[in-house]
From TrEMBL:
Pfam families: Epimerase. It comes from Bombella pluederhausensis. PANTHER family: UDP-ARABINOSE 4-EPIMERASE 1 (PTHR43725:SF53), UDP-GLUCOSE 4-EPIMERASE (PTHR43725). Its EC number is 5.1.3.2. Its cofactor is NAD(+). It is an enzyme of class 5 (isomerase). Keywords: Carbohydrate metabolism, Isomerase, NAD. This is UDP-glucose 4-epimerase.
Length: 328
């Protein structure tokens, strides 16, 4: 296949691009490098430096070349920032995605993979683990923007026949099992790399936000899924789009609390993580765990790196080998 990966210089996008290349597909990365890294683009991928906010450039790219599938990862993705500037998040994420969807329709693209999020499930009154057909109640403007895009894709299918997969993954974590790629957000907001860097003395004390959630130890519980398993799920989902659109929740089906993550890092590394309590954050649900039974049944997907030690071990290996991240 010839695949266009938007946001392919980012964390999940780069790992999916690498997996596509490993399986023999042609990959073109589209990125404006507002948050991505040039060094994260896998060897063998082509680059198109385009901003999806530019509708004419986006349309030109999609019409100029033939694409078997578009995989869309490019987005603003910080929940806290979206709470501080909701209009910017809602406008930017929705506008760029609508530009891309329109360009796909006009360019004759038939398959679209969308990087969605568990932030759609922000309310506390829900079944856990969360099934694909659970009620949508975004807990942040970031989550709301992703829901807007999911709805737009449903109309693009109904009216134009653009088949899509909305993949709502929970907490992407870990690094490429071969050590080629890793996680390097700037600023970093994810718990595992923050805790590892605090342990390695590369940043101040780790803050654990909130100690009074209704969980076993009072801290938030999340479903962590290895980024290589996420990549596998994206590629498996492409085959489903021959005849239908699909929506899948992606996770391991087991949650770990913030304190359990810290203890896991200490166990795997043999070192202590310095940390302190912080205030609870607005928009943080107490528990997010995925029911991924549908994608398992329909595609045969089964996470290979589901243990916490696998996830932490690969993340630790990459951060130790790359103390400055992608060093840009």
């Amino acid at each position: 296949m010839r695949c266009l990966v938007t946001g392919g210089a980012g964390y999940v996008g780069s790992h999916v691009a690498q997996e596509l290349l490993d399986r023999g597909h042609q990959v073109v990365v589209l990125d404006n490098f507002s948050t991505g890294h040039r060094k994260a683009i896998p060897v063998g991928a082509e680059l198109r430096e385009v901003d999806l906010g530019n509708v004419e450039e986006t349309k030109y790219l999609l019409a100029k070349e033939k694409w078997d599938v578009v995989l869309h990862f490019a987005a603003l993705s910080l929940v806290g920032d979206s709470m501080n500037d909701p209009c910017h998040y809602l406008k930017r994420n929705t506008e760029t995605s609508l530009n891309l969807i329109q360009a796909c329709v006009e360019g004759g693209v038939k398959k679209f993979i969308f990087s969605s999020t568990a932030a759609l499930f922000g309310g506390e009154n829900r079944v856990v683990p969360i099934p694909d057909d659970a009620g949508i109640e975004p807990g942040s403007p970031y989550g709301e923007s992703k829901f807007f895009i999911e709805r737009a894709l449903k109309w693009a299918d109904k009216i134009y026949g653009l088949k899509f997969a909305c993949l709502r993954y929970f907490n992407a974590a870990g690094a490429d099992i071969h050590g080629r790629l890793g996680e390097d957000h700037r600023p970093e907001t994810h718990l595992i790399p923050l805790a590892i860097d605090a342990m390695l003395g590369r940043r101040p004390l780790l803050k654990i936000f909130g100690s009074d959630y209704p969980t076993n130890d009072g801290t938030c519980v999340r479903d962590y899924i290895h980024v290589n398993d996420l990549a596998d799920a994206h590629i498996r989902s492409i085959d489903q789009l021959e005849h239908k659109s699909v929506t899948y929740n992606l996770g391991n089906g087991r949650g770990f609390s913030n304190l359990e993550i810290v203890r896991g890092i200490e166990r795997v590394s043999g070192r202590s993580v310095p940390w302190e309590w912080g205030e609870s954050r607005i928009g943080d649900p107490a528990v997010l765990i995925a029911d991924s039974s549908r994608i398992r049944k329909e595609t045969g997907w089964n996470p290979k790196y589901s243990s916490l030690d696998d996830i932490i071990g690969t993340a630790l290996h990459w951060r130790e080998k790359n103390p400055q991240g992608y060093n840009e």
